[in-house]
Amino acid sequence: MDFTQNLLNGFALAFSLENLGICFLGTLIGTVTGVLPGIGPTAAMALLIPVSFGLPPTASLILLAGIYYGAMYGGSTTSILLNIPGEAASVVTCIDGYQMAKKGKAGTALAVAAIGSWAAGTAAVIGVMLFAPPLARFALLFGPPEYFSIALLGLLVLSNLSGGSFSRSSLAMVLGLMLSTMGIDLMSGLTRFTLGFVELSDGIEFAPVIMGLFGLSEVFQVITSVEKPSEVLKVKFRELYPKFRELKPAFGAMIRGTLIGFPVGLLPGPSGTLSSFAAYRLEKTFSKKPEEFGTGVIQGVAGPESANNSATTASLIPLFALGLPFAPPVAILLSGLMIHGISPGPFFIRDHGNVFWTVIASMYLGNLMLMILNLPLVGVFASLIKTPPRILMPIITALMFVGAYSINARMFDVVILLSFGLFGFLMKKCGFEPAPLIIGLILGKIFEESLRQGLNVVDGNLWLFFSRPITAILMCLSLAVFLWGLYKWHAGRKLSRNS
Amino acid sequence: MAQRLSVFFISGILIVCAAYFIGAVRLPFGSINEPGPGFFPIIIGAIGTILSAYVLGESIKKKESAREGKTQNNALLIIYIGSLIGLVIFFKWIGSLCGVFLLVLLLMKASRLPGWRLPVIVSIIASSVIYLVFGYWLKVSLPAGILSGLI
Question: CB of B107 within 8 Å of any CB in chain A?
Answer without folding.
Answer: yes
